[in-house]
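[Q] Does anyone have a clean structure-token version of this?
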Amino acid sequence: MATRIALFIPCFVDQITPQVGLDTARVLERVGCSVYFPSEQTCCGQPAFNTGHWDDARPLAERFVRVFADAETVVCPSGSCTAMVRNFYPELLASSPLRQDAIELGRRVFELSEFLVKVANVTDVEASFPHRVTFHDSCHALRELGIRNEPRELLKNVRGLELVEMPASEECCGFGGMFAVKFGAISASMGDSKAENVAATGAEYVASIDGSCLMHIEGVLRRRKDAARTIHLASVLAQEIQ
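[A] Here you go.
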């Protein structure tokens, strides 16, 4: 494979878990891709869009379209941000001269597991992670992009990894961006429910493809003093066979 990949790094990864970005690049390079990072990229505009501040979100979306205009393929370690570009830019940029460019770009933007399995036709990235792992389906990835089986196919081929399905894996963890701020009590209750489902599996780690969900779940797990920890799918796949 000689695909040239432009990395689209979400704000949560850039500011809180930069290792996930590095791990994403490492995995893509391992399967034969050439990876580069357009340094002019900023936020995709999702926080402003989701809270109704479309006039603030629009310039960010237009900047994103310009920055990635020449990219052959764009890969992002987040279902949430990928969904923003692919599914919501056409609506946000309805009156913008860049709307058609945004639609065409959206067809070239993929979440990491989606790209590996559906585009690169890779389900085994030659990774090793000898731990018991369960998987959380993030809302945007599952409901907006239809991503469910792809991460699991990749995890099942990781050496030493035992994948255990958690009860109600498709239920929201309670984060939801500004939802967690506006409805803190409900968010906390949903987080507790998710943590209980994680505990029921006996897993050492709960993996997901969205760093925002993982941040929320990690906080709940630590508050409860549960043993399980969170890990991004990219960081599992980046672990090499020794």
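[Q] Thanks! Anything notable?
[A] The longest helix spans residues 184-201.
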